[in-house]
Amino acid sequence: MDRQTVGSTNRGRLQVGVRAEGRSEVVTAAGELDHHTAELLREPLDDAVGRGRVRLVIDCSQLEFCDSTGLNVLLGARLKAEAAGGGVHLAGMLPVVARVFEITGADAVFTVHDSLADALAD
Predict the structure, then answer these.
(1) Strands (E), 47-119
(2) Rounded to 10 degrees, what is the CA torsion of 86, 20, 107, 111?
(3) What angle (nearest 5°) sits at the alpha carbon of residue 6, between those of residues 96 and 79?
């Protein structure tokens, strides 16, 4: 089973990429973050914090959907990163995903940047 992609070819897919950039761990999420795919994002976020990479930048520019399960994954990563002296920065959210954060009030607890470049410059 390909651990980087879950779901059918049309729906429910999430691809996750991870790279170090300076003091940040950049995690790119592309596709749909939901109940079926959340673990694909949770694992690299937990791994990064476990390795001491506690400044997490989530590149959301290719994230097309996020439900409450996905939101909880990000909130959990935020708690772990902050407990270790870091934080979670969200970058480049598409309007449909940003709306979920606005409706739930989660945008108030994350550092949100317009672009990945802005998040990395911070």
Answers:
(1) 55-66, 87-91, 111-113
(2) 50
(3) 60
pTM score, two decimals? 0.88
For residue 57, what are its two tokens? 């930048």
The tens digit of pLDDT for each residue in 85-104 reads 999 999 999 999 999 999 99
19 three-state secondary structure: strand
By the 8 A CB rule, do 88 and 107 touch? no
- Radius of gyration of the chain from Cα atoms? 13
**Long-range contact pairs involving 73-78 (C-beta distance under 8 Å, separation at least 24):** 73/33, 73/38, 73/41, 73/42, 73/45, 74/41, 74/106, 74/110, 75/106, 75/109, 76/42, 76/45, 77/42, 77/45, 77/46, 77/49, 78/109, 78/110
